[in-house]
Specification:
elongated; about 110 residues
Length: about 110
């Protein structure tokens, strides 16, 4: 897959995350119900939304870093060892900065 296609895919995913984060923010801004039971359920739902938002924020950072690597000409090269990242790995994890060997080492 060429870099233009990868950049387009990453940008589309980035835009989808931003839209979803906006929905999460709107949901978290809703006032709690006055009924105690409903309020407790709503708080639990808010905690799940916050966790989801945190995960999406982390993915957004990885996508932004991948887009910077594309712009800099470093995309597809492991940021740890400098070896080429397999295309199959990039197809599966387009925002990954590491080759499979380095990712496996932790």
């Amino acid at each position: 897959m060429d870099l233009t296609t990868r950049a387009a895919m990453l940008t589309a995913r980035r835009n989808a995350i931003l839209a979803h984060l906006e929905q999460i923010e709107d949901a978290l801004d809703d006032p709690l119900p006055k009924d105690w039971d409903d309020a407790a359920i709503e708080q639990q739902d808010d905690e799940v939304l916050q966790a989801l938002g945190n995960a999406e924020q982390a993915e957004l950072k990885r996508i932004d870093a991948a887009l910077r690597r594309i712009a800099d000409g470093d995309y597809g090269w492991c940021t740890r060892c400098g070896e080429r990242i397999a295309d199959a790995r990039l197809d599966l994890l387009p925002d990954t900065p590491l080759c499979a060997d380095c990712a496996g080492r932790g």
